Amino acid sequence: MIYLPILILFVLYFLGIPIAYALFGSAIFYFTFYDAGMPPDLVLQKFITSAASFPLLAIPFFVMAGSVMNYSGISKKLMQMAEVLTGHLIGGLAQVNVVLSTFMGGISGSANADAAMQSKILVPQMEKRGYSRPFSAAITAASSAISPVIPPGIVMIIYALIAQVSVAELFVAGYVPGLLMAGALMLTVTFISRRRKYKPSRDKRATWGEIGLQFKDSIWSLSLPFGIILGLRFGLFTPTEAGAMAVLASILIGIFVYKELKFSHIKPILLDTIYGTGTVVLIIISASVFGYYLNWERIPQELTQMLLSLTDNKYTMLGIINVFLLLIGMVLEGGAALIIIAPLLVPVVVALGVDPVHFGMIMIVNIMIGGVTPPFGSMMFTTCSVTKVPVAHFMREIWPFIIALLIALVLVTYAPAIVLFLPSLM
Prior knowledge:
- The protein has helices at 4-14, 19-34, 40-49, 58-72, 74-86, 92-105, 111-128, 133-144, 154-163, 167-173, 175-196, 208-233, 239-257, 266-296, 299-310, 314-331, 334-351, 356-370, 378-387, 391-414, 416-425.
- It is an all-alpha fold.
- It folds into two domains: 1-49, no CATH class; 54-425, no CATH class.
- The protein starts with a helix and ends with a helix.
């Protein structure tokens, strides 16, 4: 019976109840009808006090920064830079799609936001250039999995809060895995485009002069993520203050450098921020109440002992966890999955000697792959809904990209130096 709230959680979720309400409802059921030792008003108090967290302020700031960048012309400059660098390659616009997601990782930090934006901007252009719409939707969804891995992703902040690790180290650790995912997708795009004869978007490679001019034009956009990382590294500001600085820098660049940010953009930016923040934070505080139930029944400790009884080999354990996370990522949105599963698994892997920063990147990459995997991947649904591509057609095109991302995941899992090399330099 102590596991009944977990069953209720999944039943409610599959009935279409939003994950935040499913988490809170299942916890309230437990404390109201099963274990009356905790008065319901204290559970509600836990729900409210969970929101009173200074580190959580980083989330609305980074959500707002991503929205400001879309309206200020920063995203457009990044797309132009991506096309100059990769437009001459086989499958030019598909390659641009991957590189833009890599750049956008330092901007939006949200896979679904990146998938929605590129579905609106790039997919129609790809279709005009002769790419099939299902292929365009598939590469857009697959490349969006890179965005949360490249800092400063919101899921990184969430994991750092849960696992009590350095946000700066986790940010730095994301660069190499993100680039590895981008490289795997670009190779796959090349293979498919050569077979289908998809043409480049540029007739010839950009000259060094053209690249230099575009780099000069895009330097403000490209410098933002690195400025955030350096500020965190040298202790100039906390992760929360870094989000505020990202918003301020984006506003100044949009007004005085690119001159595209207008007074009329204030309302849509605020609406984007409120919606994005409300969704994420409501899930986080609902998950904290659900986590209170888990700890009350010592379920994380029991799970740790159960998994450790299966094997004491950390590589075998990581393989088991990878399969489990892929399945979870298929049915739960990335942030929600991370919030629910990380408190259960971090003690297990730490007991086996796995670095929590390394495991954080394994979790994030894994859950993002699950987000593009049928039948319930959240980025799959986002992309298909915006592009009007039937899920069945999407499924036929996505598998080569999933295989490419899984190869990157295996390397991230079993070659810890890929993740820990840059943090070790700190």
